[in-house]
Write a structure and sequence with these properties.
The protein has about 130 residues and is of the alpha+beta class. It has helices at about 40-45, 50-55, 60-70, 110-115, and strands spanning about 5-10, 15-20, 35-40, 70-75, 80-85, 125, 130.
Length: about 130
């Protein structure tokens, strides 16, 4: 019999589990509840921004359009980083609510591709387990 999944707090990396191969196989997608920062290339890969638009339009204009469409919540002008909008539950908009699987896995942003090994509040650790109470 499997031991129960530990309760973790995605906002407290000290409760996280050291990442190991296969950890994601039984995960509840806790990383998909954290704010997702993306670059312009990610938005193009996701199909939210046209490559021509990305090359010729000011990022702030693109950000304004994406905010109006409720696709992003925030735009950092200095670093040209977009923070993706999330559902009211805090889940990523690309996370399937029933299966807890990524619906854009092949097109997922670089942040997701590098999490948790390199791109994480605590690199090498993951917010694996059940969400905290």
């Amino acid at each position: 019999m499997r031991s129960p999944i530990a309760i973790v707090d995605v906002d407290r990396p000290d409760t996280w589990t050291r990442y190991r191969a296969g950890l994601c196989d039984t995960c509840a997608a806790n990383c998909c509840t954290m704010p997702l920062e993306v670059q312009m290339a990610d938005l193009v890969r996701l199909g939210l921004v046209d490559p021509f638009e990305a090359e010729h339009e000011e990022p702030r204009h693109i950000a304004k359009r994406l905010q109006k469409a409720r696709l992003i919540d925030h735009f950092n002008h200095k670093n040209v980083v977009f923070t993706m909008a999330r559902r009211a539950s805090g889940d990523c908009n690309f996370l399937h609510p029933q299966t807890r699987l990524c619906t854009v896995y092949d097109k997922r942003p670089e942040t997701c591709r590098l999490h948790p090994q390199k791109k994480s509040p605590k690199p090498g650790y993951c917010a694996y387990g059940r969400r905290g109470a």
